[in-house]
Amino acid sequence: MVGARHLGCVVTSIVTWSNSEGILSTALSREPAGQRPDGGVRWPKAVLWDMDGTLVDTEPYWIEAEYALIEEHGGTWSDEHAMNLVGSDLIDSGRYLREHSGINLEPAEIVEELLDRVVVRMGEKVPWREGALELLSALRETGTPCALVTMSYRRFVTPMLDSLPPGTFRAVVTGDAVSRGKPHPEPYLTAARHLRLAPEDCLAIEDSNTGARSAEAAGATVLVVPNHVPVLPGERRVFRDSLAGLTPADLPALRAGSDAPTEVRVSS
Fold it and tell me: C-alpha distances in angstroms, 112 versus 68, 100, 116, 228?
């Protein structure tokens, strides 16, 4: 597991967990979100991170768990089916897996068994995507709030959060904390609300069509960094092959509708 690293600034933080909503919120004693030291307003005022496939490359963990679970229960599976689940709500994935694999388990049971397996793998190693930790560090140094918006459940997210300095994410929205998962906008609307920001003032980072649709529907601009599945162009989508080398100073040019040219590139 990657150890916690110093991210270049010292802050006073207050961490609270809302039992009624399952949302982790961290209040930091900083300048207001989006406020520059010179009094101007910057964009984005916050960065909203998808987890699986975007921040960490955990899709291989999920696919490995799917094959093992289905084999144990006498079903069949394929890479095509596995790719269809990338970015999806876990209960929706459980329903899909039950329908297409031929195993006789309830969707909730499927989800819990998959989680048991992938939590173990995350405890062994957090597979960060290239450039992700560096951008997180730089955003923290500039005082730009970040939120984690993932369809994974809290117990799967915890090993990753434990490997980061406290307060890295000011809000954490997990799949077991929302009533409607991606591609519905609820997860991103929830994150923006807990940051007390309009979604339009935020940049979301995603790797899948499902996640991009969710962030777009909420009103956010979406930086798409494709990983295991191709992602279609969209009105509020901008593309990069990798997060490597990306800095906070580069982000304003990514804004949807910006006059700055944005290169649209989809990785192979």
Answer: 14, 18, 6, 23
Q: Give the pTM.
A: 0.76
Written in H, E and C, the secondary structure of 65-124 is: HHHHHHHHCCCCCCHHHHHHCCCCCHHHHHHHHHHHHCCCCCHHHHHHHHHHHHHHHHHH
Compute the average pLDDT of residues 108-113. 95
Q: Is 175 a residue whose pLDDT tops 90?
A: yes
Please provide the average confidence, as pLDDT, over all residues in the chain: 84
Pairing assessment for the beta strands 237-239 and 202-206 based on DSSP bridges: unpaired
What pLDDT, on the 0 to 100 scale, is given for residue 88? 82
Rounded distance between C-alpha atoms, residue 217 and residue 189, angstroms: 9
- Sequence-distant (6+) residues with CB within 8 A of 10 are none
Tell me the CATH number of domain 13-56+128-254, given options 3.40.50.620, 3.60.15.10, 3.40.50.1000, 3.40.50.300: 3.40.50.1000
Radius of gyration (C-alpha) of the chain in whole angstroms:
18
Cα 244 from Cα 129, distance rounded (Å): 9
Cβ proximity of 236 and 222 under 8 Å: yes
Asked whether 138 and 5 are in contact (CB, 8 A), the reply is: no
Residue 8's region, left for phi above 0, alpha for psi from -120 to 50, else beta, is left
Fold of 59-124: DNA polymerase; domain 1 (1.10.150)
CA gap 90, 217 in Å, rounded: 20
Dump pLDDT digits (tens) for 197-248. Answer: 999 999 999 999 999 999 999 999 999 999 988 999 998 999 999 999 999 9
- In the predicted model, what is the mean pLDDT of residues 250-261? 70
